């Protein structure tokens, strides 16, 4: 589904991604782990098409289509979804209106009819139940005055509403207590199926107890230095990142 | 042409009008006008050397030779576009400053409520006019002096004690005639007695594409325990000029709420001044201006806390595109006597282009010690993070920006309880931001 080939990206002249290779197939969950500052959010943002990154090499294909040429909205309509590490507050725009607009833009892109208010409401109610999100939050402005946990839950709610092909979750576990973590993970697990894929970005192993990955990659200093199965996450938890970092750095 | 030339033109116009008067020139009211023209001669039009007019150069207004009347044909059908659909309102229409009886429609009101044209009242009950005229708007600048010197038409609203005006009162001001430049100088007087309520809309529109000039003065008295709400809606063509002064005095326990919405006009200058003149009164000033092209919109406000335990809330917002320019100057005085004052001021603007400019100046002068005052200003571009967030969910860039700008602007109308009015204003904002 997603193929990242030798991807290089820089921010303000600083090279952050230094040749990323990644193959994610439908039905898979990949975890990308790594210390703070290693480039995890950069990778996630580059996939979603955020401004401010200069792609200096490589390509990113979604089901064979080059997405680096696409605007963020085109990527979203093609099925890329980024759950933000820091969801943005948007005063004056209600969650419901925002999601209805987004959903209908995506539907239009796929030649589907727009949902009218009644059908949208019905659909939204189902998803709200699934993620355990309160009507009060839905009526409020997007993320405005939400607690950290509510913001993260809202990201997963959006994921459920928009049903993308590829979900990239950037530190969705940060700032969550154990109960919230379970709810959020449950939302992701319910989303998973044979047709879609998930990339979980985190620097703790904790989340991976709930969202169990098929593959774990270790990102250090802009490169994937090690890949393995879910047991790699446990090993990292135990030993830290140094043991994966050093040998690779030495061999460069 | 410099200021003094146009000043002299207005003075000779005054003399011409006076010559054609009969007995009226002896009336006490006309003596007020005479004093005002003398004052105008002294004060002259402000220039940018005047601190209060530093950012607003009115020379382009004075370049034109304005006439005071023209033959215009309009009718009920033609003015429908300027009305607020579905709003229950008494309608008072002025065409180029002259009251139009045919177009106006005043709904039945409780006994004692007066909703009248100033000109008629001057003829029939001059003493009543004298009782209220010039009580609040002191002649301290050339435009107020000029308005007073030529005061003739306008709306007088008097609400007796313990009375509520039914529905809104919509004062509709229409300017222009094809190929001509018109001036109108409405003078509105609003007197709300004790424990009374009145809600007013003053809207301004163009009937032509030419430059017209409106110089309005509103004097408002809010009686004890009363509620007065005014909407100033400026929707003239993009060449017109508008100088508007609203001066309100608030009595004990009263509330005055003012919304200023500026969408049209080439040079617009608003002075919205309130005096919190007795305890436990509340003044709310909300403003929104959306500018494009070379529009210039200057909002000056003065909130004068003269007495203790009063509250003021002020929020002005602007969205400026192209090479338009905004000015916001918000003065708040807290007098020595005004302990326990609560004054909140916020002023925000979004600049949509590199060539749009805003000058803002909050000015707090606090002479009491036990007060709560805050002011905040935020001038900036649209939040890129927010734009990206919306786009990352499939919403196109243009739509994302529009959604954010509308949300920013519509915030000003959050406090409007009347749904029809609320939706209408939101709609106007949406149309302008298209
Ligand atoms: N906008 C930016 N400007 C400058 N440096 C940045 C910017 N964004 C990220 N970086 C730098 O890029 C590196 C990787 O950051 P990031 O991708 O956020 O890492 P992670 O998510 O793994 O913690 C860090 O050194 C960070 O300081
Ligand atoms: Mg990060």
Description:
The complex is a heterodimer of chains A (252) and B (434). Chain A has 252 residues and is of the alpha/beta class. Chain A has one domain (2-251): P-loop containing nucleotide triphosphate hydrolases (Rossmann fold, 3-Layer(aba) Sandwich), CATH 3.40.50.300. Chain A is 39% helix and 28% strand. Chain A has helices at 40-48, 72-78, 95-109, 117-131, 135-139, 148-162, 178-191, 231-239, 242-251; strands at residues 2-11, 14-24, 29-33, 54-62, 65-66, 80-83, 90-94, 141-142, 166-170, 197-202, 215-220, 223-228. In chain A, the strands form three sheets. In chain A, strands 6-9-10-3-11-12 form a six-stranded mixed sheet, sandwiched between helices. In chain A, α4 crosses α6 and α6 runs parallel beside α7 (178-191). The two termini of chain A are 30 Å apart. The model of chain A is unreliable at 247-252 (pLDDT under 50). By secondary structure, chain B is α/β, with parallel strands linked by helices. Chain B has two domains: 3-278, no CATH class; 383-434, no CATH class. Chain B is built from ten helices and 20 strands. Chain B has helices at 3-19, 28-43, 59-62, 76-79, 118-124, 126-132, 142-149, 384-391, 397-410, 419-432; strands at residues 89-95, 98-105, 114-117, 155-159, 168-175, 183-184, 187-192, 197-206, 213-222, 227-234, 241-250, 255-262, 267-276, 282-291, 296-305, 311-320, 325-334, 342-351, 357-366, 372-380. A ten-stranded mixed sheet of chain B has the order 2-1-5-8-10-12-14-16-18-20, with helices on one face. In chain B, strands 3, 4, 6, 7, 9, 11, 13, 15, 17 and 19 form a ten-stranded mixed sheet that branches. Chain B starts with a helix and ends with a helix. The model of chain B has no long low-confidence stretch (mean pLDDT 96). The A-B interface holds A 48-51, 71-73, 75-77, 81-82, 84, 87-93, 98-99, 101-103, 105-106, 109, 141-142, 158, 162 and B 383-386, 388-397, 399-400, 403-404, 406-408, 410-411. Magnesium ion (MG) is lined by residues 40-41, 85, 170-171 of chain A.
